[in-house]
Amino acid sequence: MFYPIFAGRNRDMTRRAFFAQRQYVIIAIMVVTVVIFLVKLFYIQVLSDNYRLLSESNVRRSLVQYPPRGIIYDRHGDKLVTNEPAYDLMVIPRQVKNPDTLELCRLLDLDPQLFKHRLTKARKYSMYKASIFLEQISKESYGYLQEKLYRFPGFFVQPRTLRKYPYPIAASVLGYVGEVNQNDIDKDPYYISGDYVGKSGIEKSYEKELRGVKGMRIVMVDVFNREKGRFEEGQYDVPQVQGEDLISTLDLQLQLYAEKLMQGKRGSVVAIEPSTGEILVMVTAPGYDPNLLIGRQRTKNFAMLSQDPQKPLFNRALQAQYPPGSTFKLVVGLTGLEEGTITVNSRFGCNGKASSPIACTHSHATPLDLIGAIEQSCNPYFWNVFRTSVDRFGYTNTRKGYNEWRRIVLSFGFGSPISPDLLNQANGNIPKDAYYDKYFGRNGWRSLTIRSLSIGQGEILVTPLQLANLSATIANRGYYIPPHVVKRAGDHDIGFEKKKTAVADEYFLPIIEGMNNVFEASHGTARYWKIDSISSCGKTGTVQNPHGKDHSLFLAFAPKDNPKIAICVVVENAGFGATWAGPIASLLMEKYIKGRVKRLDVEEHMINSNLIGP
Amino acid sequence: MRERKNVFQNADKVMIVIYILLVLMGWLNIYAAVYDDTHSSIFDLSTNYGKQALWIGTSALLIFLIMMTEARFFSSFSYVIYVGIILLLVLVLGVGREVAGSKSWIEIGSFRLQPAELAKFATNLALAAYLGRTHVNIQTLSTKVVVAIILGIPPILILAQNDTGSAIVYATFILVLFREGLSGGFLVAGFVAAVLFVMSLLVNQWIVIGSAAVILALIAWRWQRGRRPWVPLIGIFLISAAFVFSVDYTFHKVLEPHQKERINVLLGKETDLKGAGYNVHQSLIAIGSGGIVGKGYLNGTQTKYNYVPEQSTDFIFCTVGEEWGFVGSTVVLGLFLALLIRIILQAERQRTAFARIYGYGVASILFFHLAINVGMAIGLLPVVGIPLPFFSYGGSSLWSFTILLFIFIKLDSHRNEVV
Q1: % helix / strand / coil in chain B, to the nearest 5?
Q2: Beta-carbon neighbour count of residue A346 at 10 Å?
Q3: Is the pLDDT confidence value at B196 over 90?
Q4: Which of A173, A478, B65, B136 stands 20 to 30 A from B107 (CA)?
Q5: For residue A493, with 0-12 CB atoms within 10 Å meaning exposed, 13-18 middle and 19 or more buried, which class applies?
Q6: Considering CB atoms only, which of B180, B181, B371 is closest to A33?
Q7: pLDDT single digits (tens) A477-517
Q8: What CATH number belongs to A61-248?
């Protein structure tokens, strides 16, 4: 009976009855429509999971929570490195919808060309992941921007902390922080683009302690990217862990003073507390203000610093390698005593400038004993000591004698990086026998060939840090604790194993006597820099420099008994060790032990002397 | 009091209950759609749901007015009402206020009225009055012409307001005409035309025409031997072919770019999820993420966080789908279907042709809105902005559907009286 329902041409009487049947067709159309809808609804709501995921990805936004980096204190609790809030503008390129570029550029004070460039860069990195669009917006423009930002989907502000240095000092020790590069990301999956990482100094070597653990806050955002609440009550959030604070071994006041003394000079100062190996002062001069390498100006300033002919980024305390000059006589003397080739009372003659094979730069009574030779820095004396060491297995058995001598020298920490927590230390160089074989042929060298070593010249190279450590080792009468710059991270102390030298403790006593005489005795090379009422020990060094004026070196520690500070000062191209390095070391020791300096004239002279030109 | 009791005494309780349920559910969903923790009073008049509460209250007043009006008033004044509304539609072209590209609002103070919404029940009244006369025969050409004029004027005026959605609603009266005797061929032709339209946009025109030829040949082959209707079949084929080619022309030359985009999105030819496809995509995500029982009331992230546009009006079904899931969607669709069937069954029980035709008109209009609105939200039909009856936010729309339905309830309550 389907046909009549659709038939139009019917007789009058039956027509109405037929038409009434059509209600079922109409009802059927409605039912079928609703059923089709229900089938489709069943498919998308019940069968397919796709839309649920899409809806979550719509609203879910993972916000990285950057914990504040640990603060770095000096040894007395003064802040060396702190944080201040900063805001990075991040972009998720996929979500960027035809932005009103001009408006955004105006808000950010950004050139439209640069805007395009940065967006392209972000797109290249990832369409889906956030990357930094503009780093470190000021607090003021952040407040202004935040109100307008909803109009620019895909952009959001990531709160950060920026480093801040209350004092413009110790830049090379503290290091700096910068955005991770691809290399950092590849090495450690912890990092994602836009993270900050310590790039040098303590910031780098204690990166793991300082950075803490990033958190993740998963929030829901509306279509304008405005935060609307936490996703699933925050059950998938990852809490952030604050970075550990560090207590460095540096002494803020002494560091300030040392940098002041070193201004206008090229060189470095390293001071160590002998009993602990804690580095009190580490100066490289010329240095730079660490505040230059934070924020948006970092790249520009970094380029400027790296092009500076004075090389302020070069950490001389760790990376500069010098022949130790006369300061090395201490080691030569100790080696002779240990090997038994000399005694405290051994005397060697000196013909002054006429001495052969090594002339003496000082004129003094002759012959001197060991203590006197140190006091007056007699070159021929130590050449003789060195000769007896190297030749002790026979004049022709140089190799054995040299290697034995070298073993003892290396036990002082020379020839390899010495600090466990400073990065990029130069090795220094105590030449291997193979080196001389190469130059002079196998067994083609004798003690005479390598005589320069006896007075710390020639192929031998050391860093200021290694020399400071030598001073500390002598102060300790035979051992050292590897010098380090951080003593406490978070709630645990950082300590290092004591290292014994290959020289017996007793042999240090005459060396110390000699060093004491350097200040105290009437002929001592640093007698003018004796500190009132502190019995100090020191050793001058004047390093011949083929490229210009001699380098001025000074090693010292004080007080003689129970030493509190051991120090090494290097002033490049400054002449005699006693002229520049000596007084600077002396002033620093006085300042550290006494708290204040009495010799204001010396202080003023040192501070105001400019040895490197304007 | 006695008076009022009489007013509702014979009113159909099923329709009234479903109406109340739908209106209240709609209100709750509008609240959910614009829900914000900071505005939590459901009566806040600065918000959509607060205003909707006002519209619901005034709708209740309208219901009392309608129920207290003499039933005869509607049949007697149907033409007057119709002409009045036509005048309003003309008026809106002159003084109307443009909102979102459509010039369809009359503004009186802060109060805005959309005459196109009211035109539906007025047209329905006029059609019922005309076809309800005794001895009218829809088969005659003159009747068809008059019907075409009654049904044609409002959509033309509404199209002039640039409100396509409200205009195409008038196509739904074909169901009423079908019930009143119009040949089923029109329905079939309409259906075939829709299929051909979609097919010719999706596949090569020649393939469509070829398939039509094969289907018609099959019909001819299966036909009773000896009486094969060659002339009509070839005629149908030629008309189909012409139609297929005209679709191409219409699509590219007549439709506006946004309309083309909407159709392309629907057919899967355009997948720009940020542009034209955005609304439907987000709507699908909202509904699809609802699951079986939904995310829970006020917990819909898609709707609450404004991912779905027009969510308290055209896309209100998203809120239902997302927060109440498949169960809620089924309940809402079920209630609508129940209401539609109830209206049709009651319409068939009317003594007067006027009441019956009016009833069918109500059912057809409600059905068309339901089909287009939900079909659009779930990606089965192109995006056409028309409200979901009783659900969508909007005073004009709620009033017009309330008037539309309650005039029928009023007429129905008097079906046992001698008119």
Answers
A1: 70, 5, 25
A2: 19
A3: no
A4: B65
A5: exposed
A6: B371
A7: 999 999 999 999 989 998 899 999 999 999 999 999 999 99
A8: 3.90.1310.10
Domain spans in chain B, listed from the N-terminal domain onward: 2-182+265-413, 187-254
Residue B320 predicted with pLDDT over 80: yes
Q: B248-268 b/e with 16+ CB inside 10 Å = b?
A: eeebeeeeeeebbbbbbbbee
* Cβ–Cβ contact A17 with B under 8 A: no
Hey, is the C-beta of B211 within 8 angstroms of any chain A C-beta? no
Which position has the token pair 């060298």?
A: A445
Query: pLDDT value at position A77?
Result: 92
Q: Binning pLDDT at 50, 70 and 90, where does residue B154 land?
A: very high
| Per-residue pLDDT at B140 | 87
Tell me whether domains A61-248 and A252-288+314-483+492-608 share a fold.
no
Distance from CA of B356 to the nearest CA of A (A): 11
Q: Count Cβ atoms within 10 A of the Cβ of residue A264 and give its class: 0-12 exposed, 13-18 middle, 19 or more buried.
A: middle
State the pLDDT at residue A2.
41
CATH top class, domain A252-288+314-483+492-608 = alpha beta
Cis peptide before A68 (omega within 30 of 0): no
Between CA A393 and CA A447 the distance in angstroms is: 12
Please, what is the average pLDDT of chain B? 85
Distance CA B138, CA B135 (A): 10
- What does pLDDT average to over chain A? 88
Contacts of A253 (CB under 8 A, 6+ apart): A591
- Chain B within 8 Å of A48 (Cβ-Cβ)? yes
Q: How many residues does chain A have?
A: 614
Tokens of residue A207, six digits = 């990166």
Which H or E run contains A64? strand A60-65
| Domain spans of chain A, in order of start | 2-48, 61-248, 252-288+314-483+492-608
Token pair for residue A328?
A: 């090395």
Q: Hey, which residues 253-282 in chain B have their CB within 8 Å of chain A?
A: 274, 282
Instruction: Report percent pLDDT > 90 for chain A.
Output: 51
Helix or strand or coil: residue A468?
helix
